[in-house]
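Practice record 12: protein with flavin mononucleotide.
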Amino acid sequence: MDVIQAINERRAYRSLEPVDITEDLIKDLARHARLSPSCFNNQPWRFVFVRDPEMLEKMHEALSQGNVWARAASMIIAVFSKKEDDCIIRDREYHQFDCGLAAGFLVLRATELGLVAHPIAGYSPKKTREILGIPEDYHVITLIIVGKHSEKISSVLSDDQVAAERSRPERKPFSEIVSIDRFGQKSIRGPIE
Ligand SMILES: Cc1cc2nc3c(=O)[nH]c(=O)nc-3n(C[C@H](O)[C@H](O)[C@H](O)COP(=O)(O)O)c2cc1C
């Protein structure tokens, strides 16, 4: 087992080169996404794998301004679900959580295959539904931008985006995100690598 390498190497790169999107690749990514766990095995996730150049160009309209870089995508994967298709336990609606897990599996598998798979929230769900023919009662949870990482930094990136291209954006310290045994109890000292 070697999950560690994929987790460490995965990055939300924004400088992309084209990559050939075969049916085998789509099947491979879908196969690994669907092995993800879900509440009651409800499998609420739905995907549209967009690879046709004309459809990709239409999808450019759905991207937010800060995501112009994503126009270089060789594939855009729309991930969507309905809350009624998964567990609802009082205020806990699990469809988004389960789609996040499946998207995570897909992203790691894409990383293992040498690809960039970059989830984004900066898009119009309404335009995405219109362009892709997704019925209105589905929530479009993310678009995953797929390409190959280019060493040449894209000219459309902002300064912050260029910095993120060069080194991974910082993570919060363990002391802020991890408690042991009780909320707020910190018995881990120093960095854990
Ligand atoms: C739900 C979600 C939404 C995101 N939305 C965007 C986005 O709209 N545009 C963008 O450039 N990056 C987006 N990102 C990427 C994050 O900015 C990136 O993962 C974070 O800065 C950490 O960098 P790293 O993934 O390279 O470690 C998003 C990531 C997630 C998980």
